[in-house]
Amino acid sequence: MFRSRSKEEQAPAVKAPADSTQPRDPQAPKGRPTPKRAVAQTQRRSVANTKMTPKEARARQREARRTALEKQRQALASGDERYLPARDQGPVRRYVRDFVDSRFCIAEFFLPMAVVILVLSMIRNAQMQSISLLLWLFVIVLIVVDSIGIWLRLRKQIPARFPGQRTKGAVAYGLMRSLQMRRLRLPKPQVKRGERP
Fold first, then answer.
1. pTM score > 0.85 for this model?
2. Which is more confidently placed, 72 or 9?
3. Which of 10, 57, 119, 175 lies 20 to 30 Å from 33 when distance is taken between CA atoms?
4. To 10 degrees, the CA torsion angle through 146, 152, 158, 163?
């Protein structure tokens, strides 16, 4: 009951470092005096001032989104792989784009041909209207045959060129690109017609 303390208990407690940035065990002693109320309030205010208000956070987020979209737009014009959208990235998609851009596609001329056929169908002549109807059928058959040819070639060449890589959706990507007019395609064509991709 009235024993003397051991040497370990009599040794003075080691003070914790005064650095308040380190996480502290909640059960451990503070190792520093409690700050005065005025000092604690100024510390809290300085921490609160470094945080952004929700309005500032939204403004900063909008600005970051705007710069990302601008980089993406420039990449679509120049073909820079780093900033392209996810659907256009990768060597498989680049090969499909080059394959489609290197050849004439009937579907890319559909819009001008459709305008001509519509003008012909407006003429109040039975013969011209039947010609315009035949032209519609002819153009649609040509587009279907050309699209089937592109589909078959891409289905054969993509797995041969990129074995083991993910090629899902690449053929559909190429067919959708073949439907667009060449000058309106994004990313911009990087190969000339007739070049081998």
1. no
2. 72
3. 10
4. 180
